[in-house]
Every structure is written in C-alpha cells, then in structure tokens.
C-alpha cells in the first residue's frame, strides 16, 4: 500500500493533485475474510485492465460504533490489523473517513460528489447491493448506479462468496469464534484468526507461578473471543513459537479490561516492546475463576500439556 488518505480534507481535490481516475470499493472490511479478499482481487484485476490505481474506502470508527457504541459487535480486527492485512493485496491507497456527526449528516448526493467524483475521480466502484450511505441512510445502490451513469463511472455489486452454502461474513466469523469453532473461522478467513499488539510489562505474576507470560493489551471495547487457546506467535526472530494463551479478564486475580496473556513453550527471551501476532488454533476451555493460585497453576499446567498434545497431532492433508 503506497498511501493512506485520512479524511475528506486530505483528498487530492485540486486540479494538480486530483487522481487521473481509480477503481474503488467501500466497506468496513472487518477481518478481511475470503469474501473481502474476493472483492479486492476483483478490484485489482479491474485496476490492471484499466491501468488505474486501486483504492479501498473505509470508516473509523465503524458506523455502528458511532451510532450505538455499547451495542456494536466486537471487531474482528483493529485498524492497525486491518492495514496490515490489506498490505497483502494490490492496493495503492486506503482512504479512511472519520465517521463523526458531520459525516453522518452528509447527504448522499454530497457524499458522491465530494468523495467519489471530486475527491477520488472514481471510474469503477464495487459495493454491496445492500450498501446504504448518507444522512438517514438515504443513499443506496440504485442511487450510485444513477450517479455513475451521469458522471461516467461504472457501479457493480459485490459477488456473494459462500462456503458450505452460506454467505461468508464478519458476523458469521464472530459466531464461530464465540462458539469456539476456530476451524470454521479459519475456513471463512482463509487463515487462522489472529490478534496483534505490543508486548507490555505486566504484574510479573506468571513468572512467579512458573509460567511467564507475554502480556498484550488489546485496546478494544470488546473482544470477539475469550478463554484459553493453543496458539502460534509470530513477529519475532525464530518464528513461529508455540504456546498457550488466555484472553479475558483473569477472574482469579481480577482485572478491569481484557488482556491477552501468552505463555510460550521453552522460551526465555525478553520480548518487551515487540509487536507480535497471535494465531488462535484450538480452544482448550472457557476462562474460569479458581479458588486459589495453586489451583490456577495446576490448571495452567494441564492447559500447556493439552496444547502440546495438539501441536503433536499429525497435520491433516
């Protein structure tokens, strides 16, 4: 990805800076699952055919987080994780619109004019046929197609991407994570579900218990999964490393925000400050509260043995 455009005020709307045209798509792209990937590949092929750059338009925060922050579903990916995933595709620009009251009150016609026509000079646009935009969600697919005919750009709908006769969606992946079905989540994502963050100093309690952990603050209002998992960790020399991880509030010791704690097998290096990615491979159990630290230590030992057995299983062809 060559450039991130943040906000309408950074759009290249001057005569000298205006894009000579682009192909674009609009959406939340939460998780960058196989359905999203199909759209990005479709867009890249069209960009090649027209010799135009590919632009992805997304929102921060996501619209449902702005309108109903307490009821919005847990994100599959934070903004940084989304950017990291998008770098794997032939995208020249990511346009990030801050979803605030001003954007929520913008009319559908102004959205089309300021963003798609004046700002990005879109020549080809891919959106879902249920896409709504503008004040009171007055804009829709039909309005975009009408604007495209008037201003000379093509509007097409995203092809439905299905697995096991059901549409691949971020909602379906959240449901799989909530029920501990990591194999289904991986199938829908095209890769294991992962979370990333920087290793931070914690209370060092794990070290005194014989199970030192890398503590990763998740910086999320909600997390899409919780419990204890067999994981692989990437992002440091010698990757990947196998281990066991807990996601949640650590009820035995008490915590007021979700934390990802990773215990790596046969690992003694100092990795404070490193930005790492944790791939969740199998759910071992739900998070639970123990009567004592000794009981917790016994369970962590059992979790580690169970995770080692998982990694010792032969790979499925």
Q: What do these coordinates show?
A:
The protein is an alpha/beta fold and 317 residues long. 31% of the residues lie in helices and 26% in strands. The chain has helices at residues 34-50, 63-67, 79-86, 101-105, 108-119, 141-151, 170-178, 182-189, 205-208, 293-312, and strands at 3-6, 22-26, 54-60, 93-98, 122-127, 154-157, 162-163, 166-167, 193-200, 214-217, 227-234, 241-248, 259-264, 275-285. It has a six-stranded parallel beta sheet with strand order 1-4-3-2-5-6. α6 (141-151) links the parallel β5 and β6. The mean pLDDT is 90.
Topology overview:
Elements: E1 3-6, E2 22-26, H1 34-50, E3 54-60, H2 63-67, H3 79-86, E4 93-98, H4 101-105, H5 108-119, E5 122-127, H6 141-151, E6 154-157, E7 162-163, E8 166-167, H7 170-178, H8 182-189, E9 193-200, H9 205-208, E10 214-217, E11 227-234, E12 241-248, E13 259-264, E14 275-285, H10 293-312
Parallel strand pairs: 1-4, 2-3, 2-5, 3-4, 5-6
Antiparallel strand pairs: 7-8, 9-10, 9-14, 10-13, 11-12, 11-14, 12-13
Summarize the structure.
By secondary structure, this protein is α/β, with parallel strands linked by helices. It is 31% helix and 26% strand.
> How big is the Rg?
22 Å
Helix percent band? 25-40%
What pattern of helices and strands is seen along the backbone?
A: EEHEHHEHHEHEEEHHEHEEEEEH
User: Regions with pLDDT < 50 over 5+ consecutive residues?
Assistant: none
Overall 3D form: elongated
Total number of helices: 10
Strand order of the largest sheet: 1-4-3-2-5-6
| Mean pLDDT over the full residue set | 90
**Largest sheet: number of strands, sense, barrel closure:** 6 strands, parallel
Structural class: alpha/beta
Distance between the termini: 34 Å
Strand content: 25-35%
Q: How many β-strand runs?
A: 14
